[in-house]
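Hi,

I'm pasting everything inline rather than attaching a file, because the server keeps stripping attachments. The sequence lines come first, and each chain or strand is labelled.
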Amino acid sequence: MAAPRSDRSPWNWLLLIPIAIPLIPALYNADEPRLFGIPMFYWLQLAFIVLGVTTTTVVYRMTRSGR
Amino acid sequence: MNTEIVVFAVLFLVVSGMGFVAARWRRADDLASLHEWGLGGRSFGSWITWFLVGGDLYTAYTFVAVPALLFGAGATGFFALPYTVVTYPLVFLVMIRLWSVSHVHGLVTPADFVRARFGSPTLALLVALTGIVATMPYIALQLVGIEAVLKTMGVRGDLPLIIAFAILAAYTYQSGLRAPALIAFVKDSLIYLVILVAVIYIPSKLGGWGAIFDAAQAKFDATPAPGDGILLNSNNQLQYVTLALGSAMALFLYPHSVTGVLAAKNRDVIKRNMSALPAYSLLLGLIALLGYMAIAAGIKPIGTDVNTVVPQLFDVMFPDWFAGVAFAAVGIGALVPAAIMSIAAANLFTRNIYREYIRPDATDAQEASVSKIASLVVKVGAVLCILLIDPQFSIDLQLIGGVIILQTLPSVALGLFGRWFHRGGLIAGWVAGMGSGLVMLYNIANPATKHAHFGGSAFPLEKLGLDTKMTIYAGFLALAVNLVVAVLGTWLARAIKMAEGPDATRPEDYVADRDDPRVHDLEVAGSS
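And the predicted assembly:
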């Protein structure tokens, strides 16, 4: 009765961003600028968590079955 | 010292009491089937799944060992952060397919899936054995976490450790997956509390974050080791990236991760969790920095056991009662994953060895009781590992575990997306990946711990004749070997017209959701 289900969605491509970015050390392997005394290597990688949460949340909300 | 032990013991006992009560929680008609006992009735919603999977993946050992890595080597130890950022988007579309096909076909383990998909009991057996072998040392390592805490509190002897594990074994036997799910709430609240206090309070006592990082850099500058420092150098960047990616791919191949995911109520619960679980990564990142705080505070490990630096740091920095809370958080933090891991390993044994090879006509009740006994055996084995063998051996084994569990990726993860591979090719690939991975690990020396073999996971590329000082994650290379052999093996098997195994699944099985009539087991859930 219902149309066949599929997981395909253009939104899924967004998932590549938080996979690729944290795996490029050239982006974050530096001491300066520091944030609250924390070297960039650490604070920027912590910030990637926000990137990951944001993209997966967008993909989830755009592809969930409940709506 | 006494206050610490009292607070630790009280919290530990309260939580253990919860473990026993859990059998009554969200109760279904009977616990006497594997789905009920081993998967908690598969009825867990977003919150419980978040606590369960989070408590399962971010283990006590992680909380002790990751800061110890930063304490010892610096930036390379921080790989745990990109690893846990990358893993969720990576498996986002994979785990929902596994959930669907498992619920349509009543599958409980990754090996069950391989059996259904490729029609090969041999390949399923290999996947099951890989899972059990990779999980066992992981359970043993949870004890290393408890042991580090006990050592710091000055508790001597093996008895407390044995008691802690006996309690764990008893309530897992009684309550199955419900016990860790309920306890995970407490464990995580405690850990969040401790870490938030630690990252605000400790830096303020040590002169701020800037001073902490400068102290760490000064320590690494003073050592002769070339690879340490608070930043990566040109030789260990490839290792950092491949270890993060390889670990991210391995994480959801572990049977205990699969168990946590399959216990979810529907696909949306999994998707929502993939976006909410990184909250734990924030915690992990902050915990990692405790290693540098320990350097700045001048902490020395007890003996050669570098895992004691975090408990030592808490002991020195916190008032006694709060140090007791912190130790309880680590101790309880060890119980949740240990319980889930032993359940997952027991399920593998029951489904893929006992029912496949020993009693094909086993009833649900027989399966559940075999699983319960197997989970006890697994835990006793883990305790014996720690007591009888040098704990360093467990750490080495866990390292090997990550490399070998990756070798199930072509069968399990790629199998979820297609059936291009021939079962013969997959078996050949597994053998090649496993062999090359072990040979590489065997040839990695670690001068710091005086290990000639199994000294780490960073394989020097110069051993392959390349003119470079760069290193790469051994598991990553082994997986590449595995895939190449699996592809060649598949071509060969097709060329000589070797029989394909029957595929019990259909494409629509991989996208079925809870409202689909083919998705069963859910009426058993009975959360009313």
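Residues 116 and 504 of chain B are 5 Å apart (CA to CA).

If the labels don't parse on your end, tell me and I'll reformat.
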